[in-house]
Amino acid sequence: MSTPRQPPRGSGDGKPAPGSGGRPQARSPRPARTSQPPRPRRVDGQPEPARPKAAQPKPAQPKPAQPKPARPRVAQPKPAGSKPAAAKPAARPAAARPAPARSAQPRVQSRLRSGPAGPGPRPRPRPAARPQPRTIKLADPRKRLRFVTVVLSLVFSVFAGRLVQLQLIDSDALAADANTNRYQVIPLTAERGSITSSDGVALATTVDAYDITADPQMFTPQSTGVPDAPEQAAALLAPILGVSKEQLTADLHTPKTRYKRLATQQTPDAKNQISDLKSALDKKAGSKACTAQKAQLKLPADKGGRTRVDNECANPLAGVFNRETQRRVYPSDGLAANLVGFVNAEGVGAGGLEQQYQAQLAGKDGRSSYAQAGGRLVPTAGGSMDAAVPGTDLRLTVNRDIQWAAQRAITDQVSNAGAEKGYVVVQDVKTGQVLAMATSPGFNPNDLASAKSGQLGNAAVQDAYEPGSTAKLMTMAAVLDTGKATWDTHVTVPNTLQRADRVFHDDVDHETWYLTLAGVLAKSSNIGTIEAAEQLGPTQAEANQVLGGYLQKFGIGRPSGLEFPGETRGILAKPEDWKGSQQYTIPFGQGLSVNALQATSVFSTIANGGVRVAPSVVQGTTSPDGRYTPAPPGEESRVVSEQTAKTLTEMLESVVTDEQGTGGKAAVPGYRVAGKTGTANRVDPKTGRYSGYTASFIGFAPADQPRVTVSCVIQDPVNGHFGGQLCGPVFKQVMEFSLKTLQVPPSGSEAPNLPVDWKP
Questions:
Q1: What is the rounded CA–CA span in Å between residue 410 and residue 400?
Q2: Do residues 493 and 531 lie in contact, with contact meaning Cβ atoms separated by under 8 Å?
Q3: CA dihedral 241, 246, 252, 253 (to 10 degrees)
Q4: Which of 114, 140, 176, 740 is the most buried (most CB within 10 A)?
Q5: Type and span of the H or E element at 351
Q6: CA 404 distance to own-chain centroid
Q7: What phi, psi does 264 have (nearest 5°)?
Q8: Helix axes 229-241, 268-285, angle to 10 degrees
Q9: pLDDT value of position 218
């Protein structure tokens, strides 16, 4: 017999081990081991407790802080070789104690005997199963993939259906709707540059204005719901815009275009009136009742559809818009208007400097595109804009105060003389800059409707007239500069003179005069001037060539240099073409023609020591970035010597100071004045025949230190016709004002008073 096993430590008398809760601990049965002998039994018939195995100890395993005891399962022992029966779970103790901490030694469990004692071996029950850690069971990824596939299939099916609807089913309807939902492209007008006087005061500037435009397609019955939307809109707009109903109706009855300009350059007040009226109509048309009526327009007649809406539900101004633009204004009204010019209804320069410098003043227009629906901007639809580039500002050489004085003086004298027109030019003798250019009658560019077509031009540079006696200065310059005579050369002047096919006279009948060359100029003798010009060459043809050359150097028959629109270069035939009496009339100013600026420039040349400076009216420009650029100085050319110019100046003083001179009314107290009167037969531009007179006076001051040249020309006067009589007072008034404005000091010496006659 084998030695019986000792009970395990801590148990005896068949009692359960401590910590078992007073009940034997159940274990799962193990399969029977045939290789082991039967265990001995105690005297009481119970099997001996199992001894601990001498096996390799297992490493200690960490347990949770509060381990949950495994539920014991009671194993039913079976004979060897038989199949184990299914174990039934034992009843759970009422109050289970917490399991003691697991030691590193193998755990010894008592075996419970199942069934009555009897001979034969019994299977040893297995230890209780250790608790396993809880795990999270993941969802099946195949189910999730199937769900996502189904959802995406539904979404793409909706997109595909909508695409088929847009491209095939509703394509025609959508294309029609696009006509009321498209991008509009409108021009952006650049701000026009200003024109200012020499001191920076605006003579022409730009203010905000609005062009009233319309989209004719929005006035169709389909868009408005009423058949007479153009007529209704025209009735509302006509009194505001000042345009006839018929014209507005015709403009709105053009559905093939999307843009129509109804009125240009409207004031902000007019724009606000239209906007307020449009808003009020839009509010009425947006009521619930009107919205219901508009919805019925889309239904067929058999389903209660309407063919039109009530007038109260239609907004005939829904297709009317305003475009911000500019309006040209002239703050000084008619001041320098004939020089500055004007713009037409399109804002384009149509006269004067506005026309000449159109490209610089206009700048560069831009463009803007935007989406609109039903006349309203769609902010989220995007758009594009090319910004406009403002125009360049012009600063003129014109002195605003001198211009005002010149314009007032010539306007009064033209009215007093009952003349057709007149003009005054004021020029700086050193720089050639035009300080004033006044024409009468003038016009107000702010009210072009009241101006006559003949008043819109600038007669000072556009009229060609025969200068008369003022041209004698050029003949005397040629004679003195060539050395053919001096100021005191004796000239015998008969009452009449036969040359070619004509008998020449002076302005008054007289006995034979015995004059110096200075006296010929002072008394403005035609006969004496012919005799002096004949000294220019051994033959008349050669004398003509010499005189013609000097006339050209003075700028006669050539552009003045302004390049002003419509400017005339005058008329001067070639010297070889001077035939008959013409070769004798040209020396005293008939048979050729000039403009007033050319005639003024002749006297400025003498005042400038014999050097001609090309006239100019633009002092400089200011670009859009604010940079100022001075205009280049006028081109200079010497015409006569300085000594000749000085002698001529003293001779011209005799015209004003000598009691026999013709220009006494042009004298300015405190200043030495050099000038010349002119009285010439006038060629009527309508008939081409002589009719009436041209009266003029041109001079400069102070004669000892010349600063300013002033010219006055009056065409076809009725009350008098002599230049000294009509233009002398105008010259005095303008010259005196100019000298004081420019703060020119009075002359510091007396005039030389050259003798004008001699005794035989």
A1: 16
A2: yes
A3: 180
A4: 114
A5: strand 349-351
A6: 33
A7: -115, 155
A8: 150
A9: 87
Residue 239: cis peptide before it, omega within 30 degrees of 0: no
Structure tokens at 196: 């200012």
| Contact yes or no for 671/706 (Cβ under 8 A) | no
Element (H, E) at 403: helix 400-417
Contact 32, 79 (CB under 8 A): yes
pLDDT of residue 184: 67
Whole-angstrom distance, CA of residue 456 vs CA of residue 439: 10
Query: For the chain, which residues score pLDDT lower than 70?
Result: 1-139, 166-168, 170-184, 301-304, 370-383
The answer to whether 569 touches 557, Cβ cutoff 8 Å, is yes
Rounded CA separation 185/187 (Å): 7
Strand-pairing partners, residue 158, are none
The type of residue at 616 is S
Q: Would you state the pLDDT for residue 123?
A: 60
Beta strands per DSSP E along 144-259: 181-188, 195-196, 202-214
Judge contact between 353 and 326, C-beta under 8 A. Answer: no
Q: Which residue has the tokens 């050097």?
A: 611
For residues 334 and 464, what is the distance between their CA atoms, to the nearest angstrom?
23
Question: Whole-prediction pTM value?
Answer: 0.70
Distance CA 224, CA 209 (A): 29
State the residue for tokens 């002092």: 619
Q: Give φ, ψ of 32 to 5 degrees.
A: -65, 140
Three-state SS annotation for 285-302: HCCHHHHHHHHHCCCCHH
Q: What does the chain come to in residues?
A: 760
